[in-house]
Structure formats: structure tokens, C-alpha cells
């Protein structure tokens, strides 16, 4: 079964992702949102809805367990990598959309728009599988060109090094 059959984005969510992507291209500060995929245990806990933490700009999404549709709960966005790292779970994967203004080594301004794939070492294998199945759909739906796997808080806090290629 393809990833597009496992998870979906409503037209409204796609529009919010598009607005985030376009709206962050001229931002002076980093901006990010965190998304998660549903897991069987969480689906049961929430009686039809799984809450999705969309942070760094904390956009909490809700995933309808019946349709697997991902939709945002609010439009809050984080701008500090330290705050983002603090809010990420220690044992659950997440997708983070990040727009990070920086200056390249040759002095040009750049605003990379990337998908950070938060995959802590001690996460549940079922959750790893759930996220692995959704990463390509998330990448194409969010229209990012680059996916960066991050495993620790320090990877998030020091993301500028990876974005500039000085890691």
C-alpha cells in the first residue's frame, strides 16, 4: 500500500502548508511547525482523533483515525530552536517543517525550507514504521526539497550547521 493511501492532507491543510511555505520565505527569524502521524494506541486514546503536535510555530494537528486525514489545530509557530527542542518528545518521532533564514558562506541571503525528521534513538518500532511510511507524502505535500534526519536536541539547536553544510 502506498504512503498516499495510509495518510492524507485535506485541501485546507495543504493550503495552510502552502501559506506557511510562502509566508516564511521572507521571515527574519526561523519558523517551524511539528507534525505527527497516528499510531494505533493513540488512535484508541482519542476516540477518533489523534492529536498531532505541530510545533516551532506550534501547530498542533489532529489526525482523524478513520480517514487518516491530517489537519492543523492552530496556527502558532515557534521561532527559537531551543524551544522547539524542549517541546519534542523524547521517545516519539515527529516531522518538523522548518524555514531558517541564514547567510551563505559567500554572503548571499538564503532561506532553506526543509523537513526535519525527528527520530530519537529510543522510539517505539511501530512509530518508526508509521513515520517511515509517511515521510515521502509529508515531503511532497509540504513541497520541501530536503529531508534532514535529527536524533537529539543538539541536532535541532545546531541545525544551522547542517543547513550551511558546516556540520
From TrEMBL:
This protein's record includes keyword Nucleus: yes
Record GO cellular component, one term: nucleus
Q: Which Gene3D superfamilies match?
A: Severin
Q: Which domain of life is it from?
A: Eukaryota
* Membership in a protein family: Belongs to the actin-binding proteins ADF family. GMF subfamily.
| PROSITE patterns, alphabetized | ADF_H
Q: Does the keyword Nucleus apply?
A: yes
State the protein's name. Glia maturation factor beta
- What are the ADF-H domain coordinates in residue numbering? 32-167
**Residue intervals passing through the bilayer:** none
Can you provide one Gene Ontology molecular function annotated for this UniProt record? Answer: Arp2/3 complex binding
What InterPro entries does the database record attribute to this sequence? Answer: ADF-H, ADF-H/Gelsolin-like_dom_sf, GMF
> What keyword terms does UniProt attach to this protein?
Cytoplasm, Nucleus
Q: Any idea where this protein resides?
A: Cytoplasm; Nucleus
Q: What would be one Pfam family of this protein?
A: Cofilin_ADF
Gene Ontology biological process terms in this record: actin filament debranching; negative regulation of Arp2/3 complex-mediated actin nucleation
Amino acid at each position: 500500500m502506498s504512503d498516499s493511501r495510509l495518510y492524507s492532507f485535506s485541501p485546507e491543510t495543504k493550503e495552510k502548508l502552502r501559506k506557511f511555505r510562502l509566508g516564511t520565505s521572507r521571515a527574519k527569524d526561523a519558523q517551524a511547525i511539528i507534525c505527527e502521524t497516528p499510531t494505533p494506541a493513540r488512535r484508541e486514546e482519542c476516540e477518533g482523533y489523534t492529536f498531532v503536535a505541530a510545533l516551532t510555530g506550534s501547530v498542533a494537528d489532529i489526525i482523524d483515525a478513520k480517514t487518516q486525514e491530517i489537519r492543523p489545530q492552530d496556527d502558532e509557530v515557534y521561532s527559537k530552536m531551543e524551544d522547539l527542542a524542549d517541546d519534542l518528545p523524547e521517545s516519539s518521532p515527529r516531522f518538523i517543517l522548518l524555514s531558517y533564514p541564514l547567510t551563505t558562506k559567500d554572503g548571499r541571503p538564503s532561506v532553506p525550507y526543509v523537513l526535519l525528521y525527528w527520530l530519537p534513538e529510543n522510539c517505539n518500532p511501530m512509530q518508526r514504521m508509521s513515520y517511515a511510511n509517511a515521510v515521502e507524502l509529508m515531503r511532497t505535500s509540504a513541497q520541501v526539497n530536503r529531508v534532514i534526519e535529527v536524533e537529539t536536541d543538539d541536532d535541532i539547536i545546531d541545525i544551522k550547521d547542517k543547513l550551511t553544510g558546516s556540520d
